[in-house]
Every structure is written in C-alpha cells, then in structure tokens.
Description:
Strand order of the largest sheet: 9-10-11-12-13-14-15-16
Largest sheet: 8 strands, parallel, barrel
Number of strands: 16
Mean pLDDT: 89
Structural class: alpha/beta
Shape: elongated
Distance between the termini: 43 Å
Radius of gyration: 26 Å
Amino acid sequence: MMSKEDFFLGCYNLEIIKFGKFTLKSGMESPFYVDLRPLVSDPKILKILAGHLLRIVSPDNFDLICGVPYAALPMATAMSLESHLPLILKRKEVKSYGTKRLIEGLYKKGQNCLLVEDVITSGKSLIETIEEVEREDLKVTDVVVVLDREQGGKELLEKKGLRVHTLFTLTEACEILKRNNLLFPEDEKRIKDFLSGNKVEFSNKKRLSYAQKLEKVSHPVAKKILELALSKKSNLIASADVCSTVELLEIAEKIGPYIVALKTHVDILSDFKFDRTILPLRDLAEKHQFLLMEDRKFADIGSTQERQYNHGIYKISSWADIVTSQVIGGAPAMDPFLNSGVVAILSMSSSGALTRREYFLEAQKIAESHPNIIGGVTQHPLQHDSLLVFTPGVHLESKTDKKGQQYHSPREVFKRIYTDFIIVGRGIYATENPVKMAEKYRIIGWEAYLEDLS
C-alpha cells in the first residue's frame, strides 16, 4: 500500500488544504482551509484512503459503517466495499414524505456502528450525529477521521467516552509538507499561532499587474516578456524537453502562437548543429513572437560560466534571450551573462530539494541586487517587485512523478506564489495534441492571473 506520506502528497495535489486568509463559518479568520471533497472525485485516491482508514481501526469490531453527511459518505462507501461492512446512510434531515426515516439501510437494534468523518474541528456536529444514530438503538463507540484540525474536537469526543482514530493531524500534515518544501515558513508560523490561540498576522502583499511590473523592471528582456504577456494574453512558457532537432522545431512551430517563451535544453539534442537547430529556431521565435529560454542551469565559478555561455558548440550567448543559472557561485558568477536575462534558480519543485529557507533567502538577496537577473525560479513568493517569478512543475492534473517532481495547478501557483509565468513541460509536449493543450494552458494561466489580480 502507498505510504501515508506519499498518499497525503497525492491528496495535497488535489488542493485539499489551502493557505492564505479564510473566514470560517464561525466568523473566525483562519490561515488555512481544509476541504477533502475533491478526494471523492479520484477513484484511486478514494480506494487508497479507504484502505488507510480501515488499517487504523479493526473492522471486525463493528457491525455497520456510516459516513457523516455529506463529504464522508463516499469515504464510508469505499470502506464498506473494501471491508464488506454493511453501510447505512444518515440523512441530513428527515424528509416530510415517504418513510420519513433519518437512517436508511438494513440494521438491527444494538448493532455497533463505526462513524466516518472527513474533518473534525470542534466535534460538536459529530456529537449531534452520534446522538441521532443512537436514537435508532444503534451503538457508536468509535469514530474514524481523515484529518484532525486540532481545535478540541477529538478531546471533546474522548471525554464522552468515544475512541477517535485520526489518519492525520494538521501538525502531521504540515510536517509532511515541510519535508517536501511545500509549506512556506510564514504559513507554518501562522498555523502555529492559530492553533495556540495567538494573534495571526496576515500578509498584505498584493499582486502587481504585468503593466505595473513593466514600470518597475529595467532589464530589456524583462520588459520584452511582460510586453509579450500583455499582447498575447499569455503567461505560458513551454518546456521542450525533446531529444532531436526535428521534434524541437516541430513543437516550436505548433505551439509558438500560445507561448511567451520556449524553454530549451539544447545539450540533450542528439543531432545538434548550430545552423540546422538554432537558426531555424530563431526564425520561428521571430515568426510567432516568443523568447528563447535556455535552461542551462549554470552552476560554476564565473570564468567557467563565461566560457560555457560564449563558446563551445552551443554558443548560448548568441541566441538565448533568457538563461537559467544557480546562484551557488555568488553574485560575481552572474556577471558573464551580458546578452541574456538571467532567471536565478532560487528554489526547486522536486521532492527533497536542498534549496531550503536559508539558501532561498541568501539567493534572493543576490537576485535583488544583480543587474543581469530578471527573476527567479521559485516555490516561494519574492519580496522584490522588480523580480519576475517563474514557476515550473505546473500541471492541470496535479500529481507527483516517480523522480520526485511535485506538480501544482496554475491557480495554486498564482494564488500562493504570486507567479508571473508558468512553465509547463510534459503537460504539453508529451500529449497527443500539443496545440490543444498549449491553448488550454494559455487560457487557464491567463484566467488564473486575472482571478488573482482581482
């Protein structure tokens, strides 16, 4: 069975936890919002969830299973199918017609019923549900919960003599996200303050429009990509991780109208020749109005990077509008990139990446002060408004690949990271219809930007 941590990461990619500023039903402002309903739309996730929930209770101790309406109903159904425990359904309210029953299904008086809940907060609504079930002469001794928000609900039920089995607590969920570089330190602090009853300080940072950023940037490449975004109504950068010149030129021709930049890895081309690869690629970039972004990820001392940038068979300085570079060599190592705008690698989207908080903060200082750097590849918001935010690992079907890549939806990265440009690879070039998918990502990315702007 999939480990709890991997399972939770799969759930997280369905956006079951959102961080920000949310007003709860009680009127309280919370730094996070939990919604497990998206899980029921993924049959594989739902089946794995049922298995995990059944492992933390002993099905043999129960005669029936019942989900608290409505979010937990599909979860209880999946558990019933896995365990063969008979399922009963509790209505939200009694109908004024028909049988007028609150509990539907076949059951006998005195049977022990396992109650299933998605999220437990104060526990008061669960107490009410238990009382209603027990009015039908059924026993409730145990409750199994997917996520405990740690706001007193579990303790309240235990005082009533109930056994509460939780798959995850909010603290455990945050620890998993933190280990995988998916929880920003400021969000972690707000959650701790919220759970401990301290005042929560929310960020007042607002997104700048592309037009507003145009007034703040000075590098000509930064200005160009913002102008392209406005004229093409696109914030899409497509990653062309293909291994032949034919494939590269074909994808550039097909999706060029929908993108502001094409991200290349020319060192993986098996048949690279400058005149047959770069010259026609530059023609396509001019024809369809997009920039070329060579994802070289330079990571050496300045003198070596100068040779890598200007010489060799690739002659990157002669054609790349944008290059990517690590900043591990320090600010002077960024000096050679005079012909291109540099996108600094500040943090990475892969699981277990070492670009943690300390590195990110120091790398951000270099990015803010160096004239060649136009922005950063980052999983965190940047403080300086003149820096552009480039976010890879974007996919409409949020998931994790087998090599540690963590995918996020366009809406999430615009909302959480204040992204300016999304970078999409396999979601476009590895599909049957790259043109259709490029247009889809262009529309969804632009809508996510406008939504966040408003």
